[in-house]
Amino acid sequence: xxxxxxSQARYGELTMQFIVVTVFAYAVVLLLxxxxxxxxxxxxxxxxxxxxxxxxxxxxxxPASHFDLIGTLGILIVGIGWAKPxxxxxxxxxxxxxxxxxxxxxxxxxxxxxxxxxVLMMIVRLVSLFADTGNAETIYYICYAVMLAASINVxxxxxxxxxxxxxxxxxxxxxxxxxxxxxxxxxxxQIIMIAVLLICFTGILSGxxxxxxxxxxxxLAFATGFIPGNDMVLTMLGLS
Length: 240
Hints:
Blueprint lengths: L1 H9 L5 H32 L4 H4 L13 H10 L19 H31 L7 H25 L7 H6 L5 H8 L2 H14 L3 H18 L7 H6 L4
Helix pairs in contact: 2-5, 2-6, 5-6, 5-10, 6-10
């Protein structure tokens, strides 16, 4: 968020509308999307028979239960961060193997992000209908704010699906690796995480991640096309 605002200010394009829209979008991510992501991990683990997260109080949408200071600052400053890791013990899963339980539990978080973005995109289309009431500019900014929240949410899902530790994607890949190879990689989890964050600061991953984000957002725009909307607003948002 901070980088977005600084970037706009640098080019003399910073407006109060942009600040309000940006703050709103990140508030949605921190107060709704992040808790949904972590709760999804905990909920799926509970469904599979692992109640570790359940008894740790993580099957909840209360943001305070998932708060991580450094991860939250990362989201606010550069748009990339994390919440407090959900404790899981896949060996306690009774309905599937430990490997499958780990993969399904890990995938639940990013999937929940994409599903939540789908809901946000539906809201954009429905809210756009009110542009005909004479408040077209206000409705546009509301729709843009919600769509920005959806986009940030998708970005977090994509980032979390990177097949490297400690991100969720590494737990999904675990299904396809031998235990020896998996744990050999996991020994360097913290080092790899620091390296990835440093790479993100250089902007090297911006191109590939933006491409994937745009692809998912286009799909969501298509998938929500069954909902009517105001053509003028949707065109301005690039949804029609």
